[in-house]
Amino acid sequence: MEGCKYEGCGHGTYFAGYARPAPQKVLGGGRAILAQDSRNRTHQEHVRHGTAVEKGLESEEQSGVKGVSCIAKMLPYFNVVKGFPIAVGHAFLLGVVSAFLDTVLADYKTEGERPNHVVTKANRRKMSARHGRLVWTHEHGRPAKDVVKYRASMTMEELLVFVETASLYVFLGCLLKELETAWFHLRRAVMHYCRISDGGMDEARRERAKADVAKYASIVEEVIGPQMCTMNLHQAVRHAYEQETATGSTAKSMEWFVEQHVGELKKRVAGMTREPHKVVGNDVLLEKALTDRVTEKPHFRALVGLDEEREPEAFKGPTDVPEEGVQLLHVGQPLGASQLSPDELASLQNHAETVGFTTDVQRWEIHEFRAARVGDQAYQSRARYRTAARHSFNVSISWSSSQTRKRTEHFATLERFLRVQDSASAGVLRIATGTVYKQARAEKGLSVLDAAQPLKVGEVIPLESIESKVVFAPHDEQQGKMYVLPCFSRDL
User: Fold this and answer.
1) Residue 149: inside a domain
2) pTM of the complete model beyond 0.85
3) Does residue 414 contact residue 381 with C-beta atoms inside 8 Å?
4) For residue 347, which of 370, 393, 421, 460 is within the disulfide window of CB 3.0 to 4.6 Å?
5) In sequence order, what are the beta bridge partners of 326?
């Protein structure tokens, strides 16, 4: 890119890497030059301008470089433009997303001073109230930050959680119509480039993500102004797709791990030494020495963070073993068939008959478990959850009714996890029971359901039909109406 400053607004605009004015209408209504006309600097241009700067023929401000990259000097075959991957988390989350939030949530004193694209104070209060009503899943160790009040201190991970799960609900009806559309495109692009998914690398999705970020750039430049045309936005528009083509999924090469390690280094050495590399090196050597010593002296285990060997605990009850990616968690508690609700008992008998399991209740040995793991995700039962601030029992399922047998996506609340064993044949059923809701309808990018009028209560839900956790968010005014927010699931 050429240049790095905004200059010459009277006769054009320098933005995110151009050393000469780019033709456009500065105050909105112009062509989307960032999305359509911007281009990457070539390696040859970098060398030409860098050489000119080193010889004093051009200034750094004019060329946008301080000289020829030292790596390009040492490695003649190295391409400066394509050789350095962009920091995806910084570019998209700390860059583009943060810039959008700071712009639309900018402070103002009086309504007359408020730019048209800035959210009103009434809508800010509405956004904060919606944040407060969200009950998050166990993946989130602490309540998500209110983006209105604490956006300046949000980390990359917190911004990604907001973008993915809360943003469409929190922003609903609070942004300009054009900016709602812009955010929809930006959110979809962020989910592609910053979230790992098995199916995300097919060409159609890659092209859609590329178009999404370009459409976002086009809208915000026209509606808000050229100040949105930042270096980070240029990287998102022009480099993310090319980097993905060269390296594969950008989410798999994000800077999460580096940032976490930097955080650990700061804890060890911040403000304590001018030679942090020596402190870190000594720590590594000390830890290795202690670990080696443990093999000779087991009572040193606690010094390196290992638990001392303990006596096995007394047997407290039946546990479950993994089978085909499904496992019931914690210790099972005995449950009589009479303790099931009539709906649960009838549904369980129907399910048993369908799968060829005995319908003789007298042969059933039922145990109830607190949680279950399906694949790499873990879920919780509403009947036995322990915390009001977190829960993981609202889910998306692939479900078919007994009448149609056609599997469709539904949302459900998991009430119990049961293991039913046939005392005669030793056959086992692992199932959940819960409430299945009518198919949700789409509204402004969100799924909406009526929790007050469920489709089935006490319905058997095969564990393998559970697909992911979701967050239910209440409607501002209509009792029982719920917005369904997607949630990236990991574990309990």
Assistant:
1) yes
2) no
3) yes
4) 460
5) 323, 374
